[in-house]
Structure formats: C-alpha cells, structure tokens
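Instructor's aside before we start: the two examples that follow are unrelated to each other. I chose them only because their records fit on one page, so don't look for a connection. First example below.
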Amino acid sequence: MTKKTTKSGKSESNTAKIVAVGASVAALAATAYFFLGPDGKKHQKHAKAWAIKMKGEIVEKLEMVREISQPVYNEIVDSVAAEYAKTMKGDHAEVRQLANDLKKHWKTISHGAQSKS
C-alpha cells in the first residue's frame, strides 16, 4: 500500500490521523468544560441520557471531518440538534440550549485541539 505525499512531505494518512485526534480532543474539551467548568455542578445535575448521546454523535461527526473550523463545528452541532429536536417531546428548548452552550465554547475547543496536535 502506497501513501500519497503532500508538498510538505507528510503523508495524507498522518494528516488524517492528526485531524481525527484533534477532533476527539476538541470534543473531549467541550464535554469536560461543560461538566467541569464554572456551571459544571448545575450541568451535572441536569444532564440527561439524551444530552450525552447527542454529544457522542457530535464527536463521531467531528471525527469524520478532515478540517474543523468554527462554521463546520457549528453546522455539525446544528444538524445533530435538529435531529434531536424532531424526536424529543417537549424538550426543544433544552436541545437548543445545549447546542448554544456547545457552540459558545468553540474558542476553548479550538485552542485545546491546536495544543494537542
């Protein structure tokens, strides 16, 4: 199996691995900040199984993306939140709130991903 090499001499498979690790770190940072940050105690008390599952789906989609930027991150969060809003009964406001909270933490997430990759 041959690896394609970019102009900088790095193989594409290494770049893909770095991006996947960065996405995982970013998602982990977002989750950690959500549960351990300034409002962490409140978030822990109100955490529900659907919220954890929703975040997991966001992580999975982030891992599939080659390059993560704020618009890409926001689009993924919005698409997963829209799916959950359709299936949830009466918790649309909670889904929107979780999506907004996750999007607010983009800077923290992006800095965490940059320092790890």
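Example two begins here.
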Amino acid sequence: MFYQKNYEISHRKQDFSLFSVQFFVTLHPNIKFMKKNPLIQLGNVPVQTGTIAAYFDYLSSPSEKIRTLEKDGQLIRLKRGLYVVSDEVSQKPINVRLCANHIYGPSYVSLQWALRWYGLIPERVFSMTSITTKRTRMFENSLGRFTYFQVKPDYFSIGIKSVEENGVYCLMGSPEKALCDTILYDSYLPSQSVKRLEQYLEEDIRFDMDALSDFDVSIIEACAQTGRKEQILNNLIKIIKKI
C-alpha cells in the first residue's frame, strides 16, 4: 500500500511536469529548444573562415553554413575569408579598430580617425584610416570604409601604442604619430613655413593647440629623421617648443 501511494504521487508529478511543458509550448508556439550558439566562443575578435568552419565540421558543407550565418546577420564579412561575429550573438561590442588591424596588416589606426578618437580634432571622420608597410589600399564592408596608407618600415615602427577597450587590444598611432601621419599624407600643405603650419593646424584641421604642450617631441623628431617632409615636421617641433 505504501509503495502504491508513492508510485501514484510520483506518477502524478510526472504528469504535472509533462502538462507544464505542453502548456508552456502551447502559449509560446514559436519557441525553439536549441544548443548554445558556438559562435559566442569567438567573441568579437576577427577570425578566418577556417576557424569558423571548424565549429561546423560535422556538416557536409561548413562553407555553406558560413554563408547562411552571414545572410542571417550572425557573421559580418570584413573581407574575403575574414569575419567578425555580430554583437547580438557575441554579446560584445564590435571594435572597429581591431577589425582594421586584422583586415590589412601589419597596420595601426592613425591619421584623422585617430586624431578624432583622441579628441584632438572636432570633425567626424567617416573612413577608418590606418598606416601600413604594404601598398596603399581601401576596403569597404557593412562596418564602413577602411583606408590604408603605405610608409617605409623604419617610419612605421615609430610611436605605435597598444590601446585596450573592453578587454580587447588594438594598435594605434600615438597622438604625436597620428599628427605626423596626417601631415605626411595631406597634399594641401605645400608651404615649408612655421606660420603656414600653424594656420593649417588651427584653421584647416582645427587641431586642439593646447594639447601640443603634452606632446612627446622625441616621437616627432624620430619621424622627421626618416626624411619625408622633414622640414615641416621640424617646424612642428618649433611650434611645440614655444608653447
């Protein structure tokens, strides 16, 4: 009798649990019971196609799965063979500077985009600008336009810093290097005079002149010694030293 009562109670609990599940599914007919999305493990770091395909090697065509994930918006194509997981899936913000480092390298984020990020110029910059030792190139994807300018290796290595944001590190030019890079690639700076350079900084790019007092002159001196636009960079050093 005792065992029979326990059996009846246990059986009723199972019936009630089954009824609860059936009732929940009835109320939410679109719910899907699925495994955790493996793309979450990739975080917000750009990855090659092969890395993604390894998570779906049990399928007959992992490449077809990747195309489907891209179409669904779970993957964002940065360039051919390179992706980043969408922030909705990874639950981490996409770091466009880190993407820039991966799209074309070796490279570091610099020029006007970096100056804007440091708060040194007021205008918005719509192209992610970087410096590379490879040939000048441009890439476009759903995140925007990524432009890369070529320099010589001896100049490239000066004034690069690793910047951390939300646990992710990317390479950027220091404020000093970003300004040197901007001067280097701005064709609207033909004059060699100190006065014209001051006008360029204050009026053309509306640079925060007060910030120059905190600049490390040694970085600019090292850039000038590589030879390109040496006189203009030396004039920049003169402007900084008289502040």
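The CA atoms of residues 106 and 183 lie 21 Å apart.
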